[in-house]
Amino acid sequence: MGQAEEALADLEGEHGEPDLAAVKAFAHHAIGNTSEALSEVAQLVSSSSENTTVQILGGTLLQAAGKSEEALALLTKHQGNLEAVALIVQIHLQQNRTDLALKEVQAARRWAQDSLLVNIAESWVGMRVGGEKYQQAFYVFEEMAQAPGTSATKSLVGQAVAELHLGRLPEAEAALQQAVQRDTNDPEAIANSIVLNVLSGKDTSGLVSSLQSAAPDHPFLTDLEDKSALFDQAATKYAAKVAS
Fold first, then answer.
1. Rg (Cα) of the chain, in Å, rounded?
2. What is the dihedral of CA 5, 83, 53, 50, to 10 degrees?
3. Which end of the chain is less crowded, N or C, counting CB atoms within 10 A of the terminal residue's CB?
4. pLDDT tens per residue across span 140-176
5. Residue 76 burial (CB count, 10 A)
6. At CA 123, angle to CA 93 and CA 61, rounded to 5?
7. d(Cα 24, Cα 11) in Å, to the nearest integer?
8. Closest Cα to residue 212, out of 197, 229, 199, 194?
């Protein structure tokens, strides 16, 4: 809800409870106090690494700080927690270790069976594997987007991404429009709308500005800036030389 400072004020004076301490660390992270957040997480990992809240929030913070191996070491201590499984899958995918992400999903499937969260994690992996897995992922996100209990902006974005991979641009556009109507500032809806416009040959400048306002540190913008710098650097090698 964007009320991290209020949460910190409510937690002031709370000591000794790992769950509350983990929430406090997460609140510090949310307001940009990364060093304080990581310090608190380090203490919690030493004293309460078996606590589920510490695992989930601590793992999230460690991954956000680029400490993937530490995040995985903490999360793998879970005892049958699907949120931990989902985070582990996400981390492996960010590491480009689709094989490990798939292994994690398969292991969870054995004890969680047809859990929705396992289906979602399997769909994330399927998007990376490609081929017929795109269609399978589409079915999962489409069902979520249409069901009252799971219909949300992220479900529509997931459906749209699957549509993009399947080359169904009009359908992807329809899903993204619905997502933006639900939340005009959702970074993932905006970022994927940019991708759609690029594929459709449409202007992206307005959407890029919207993403810069909604999430200035979004990975899409960082990657775009890096690629632009590399292009400019390469272009200088072929710049016309003026004879003196």
1. 21
2. -150
3. C
4. 999 999 998 888 999 999 999 999 999 999 999 999 9
5. 13
6. 40
7. 7
8. 194
